[in-house]
Structure formats: C-alpha cells, structure tokens
Amino acid sequence: MEKLDLAELGLRAVNRRLQGREGAEETAFEVTGLKGEHAVAAGLMSPISVTLKGHVGYYCAGMNKQAEIVIEGNAGVGLAENMMSGTVRVKGDASQSAGATAHGGLLVIDGNASARCGISMKGVDIVVKGSVGHNSAFMAQAGRLVICGDADDGLGDSIYEARIYLKGEARGLGADCVEKEMRAEHLEELAGLLAAAGSDADPKDFRRYGSARQLYNFKVDNVDAY
C-alpha cells in the first residue's frame, strides 16, 4: 500500500497519483493529512482501493469509476456526485446531495445524510444506515435508496422509477411519491443491498415507496394553470 500525505504533497499531486496520471502501479492507497479539503479522490478511473484517513469537504469521490473508496470521517456536500461504478463508503455523516446524479455503483453512509440525498439519482444504489434530510430522492430516476432511519419532509418528490426502502418514518412524502406493496422480489432485492452495505437490518421491517406516475403526462384539465 502506498501512503500519501496530502498536507505535504498537496491536493493536485495526490489526485494525479490516485488517477494513475503519474504512472503508478500501486492498487491500494492510504491518504493522510486531510483537513476537509474539497474534491479529494475525484475522477478515479481504475479498480484501486483508497482509504481517506479523516474528514473531507465538497465533492469527494465525484465521477468515480471502479475504485473502492473508504472515508474514515465525515463528508461535505456532493459526496460521490455523478459516480458511474465502484463503491464509496463514508464511516461518518454526509452533508447535502450525497450521490447526486450518480449513474451506478454503491454508496454507503454509515451515519446520517443531510438534505437531498440521492437527488436526481440515475442508477446508483445508496444505503444510509441513519436518517436522511428533506427532499431526498428528489426527481430520482433509477436506482435504489435504502434508509435505515427516518426521512424528513418531501421524500421522493417528483420521483420517476427509482425505489425507496424506508425502515423508519417519513415526515412527509413529496409530490407523486406513494407507498407500494412490498413483494417477495423486493425483499430479496433489499436483502442483497443491506448485505452489500454490511447492515444486519431485517428487510421485513422496511416499506417500499415509488412513483404514482401521475406527473408523467400533461393533462388538459390543468391547462389553465399554465
């Protein structure tokens, strides 16, 4: 394992090393000297493992492809934004818009996530072991959001075809988001997601939410509202 001290090397040099732009052959890295810097481990494109020993700022692990990234601290706004594949795990809490617009991969948040977790998600799987803030899964198009705690107001507002699994209570559902039947295939799917995230929660304790599909098409009865 190669050890990189961000305080000594600087953010640009550390990211270039992790991105393989310096010709590195290592596949495992440990980054120390973190003090909440933004865009740490962003744009990684290969199947390497990276452990970040501390707190990170905005847009950590953004655009990740294939890499397995562990954050041993808290993460700022936009964690794993636009991730395509790979795994990102934060052992603390995540700020707003975790997993925003992400197309694939798995994002695990061991603590809580703030507002708009999974906003406009497009295929990523997100497992939050704590609770999420308001408007989580807003305009979520595909993928699965698992919440082991509670959800604040506006859960799943204007949701498309993403699935939400919630163990706790939702303060309020957003427009066009409804509770749906939890069938055998959903229990099986949820069990797989929880196992991948290292959670021992029982799938039978969760409820499923999704789109009522009432916002898909223009209705002539609403023409006066435009």
**Principal-axes shape call:** elongated
Residue ranges: pLDDT <50 for 5 or more in a row?
Answer: none
Arithmetic mean of pLDDT: 95
Largest sheet: 11 strands, mixed
Give the helix proportion (percent range). Answer: 10-25%
Chain-wise SSE layout:
Layout: E1 2-5, H1 6-9, H2 11-18, E2 28-32, E3 49-52, E4 68-71, E5 87-90, E6 106-109, E7 122-128, E8 142-147, E9 163-166, E10 177-180, H3 184-197, E11 207-211
Parallel strand pairs: 1-2, 2-3, 3-4, 4-5, 5-6, 6-7, 7-8, 8-9
Antiparallel strand pairs: 9-11, 10-11
Explain this structure to me?
The chain has helices spanning 6-9, 11-18, 184-197, and strands at residues 2-5, 28-32, 49-52, 68-71, 87-90, 106-109, 122-128, 142-147, 163-166, 177-180, 207-211. Helix content is 12%, strand content 23%. It has an eleven-stranded mixed sheet with strand order 1-2-3-4-5-6-7-8-9-11-10. It has 226 residues and is of the alpha/beta class. The N and C termini lie far apart (60 Å).
Short note summarizing the structure:
The protein is α/β, with parallel strands linked by helices. It is 12% helix and 23% strand.
List descriptors.
elongated, alpha/beta, 226 residues
